[in-house]
Amino acid sequence: MPTYKNITSLRQSLNGKVIEPSGIVHTTSYYNENEVKLLKIDDAPYYNPVLFSEVVTERMTIQIPEKDNLGERITKYAIHFFAEKGRVIIRYNSEKNDPPLYLYETAKWNVRCHDRTIDKIIIDSDENFVLNIIMEHIR
Length: 139
Hints:
single chain; 139 residues; mainly beta; Jelly Rolls; 2 domains
């Protein structure tokens, strides 16, 4: 997600955003350099959809972050689980949320949230376990 600067004396439009003369914009989209005159001034900030990537081996509660690494509010995200070892018990938002999701050894599970329906994930087990979790921001 590089940083660009409008190097003209005219307003430029890019992906619905108006960039004033000498204005700066961050964009993940490609654009036609013949139509829009922007100068790349920095490769940062770097876009990274990964919000959380962890190997969990003990009881844990994971809080879904409110904002991504660019400071944008997270409303859509996907959570990917892979139970490498043991039986894992997963509850969303509350320990009272029954029935839980049970993942047995080698099970995979994906959850897509499009309106922040999950704010925290409670991970537990009644035995030794290894759970891989990846959480990604969906745009």
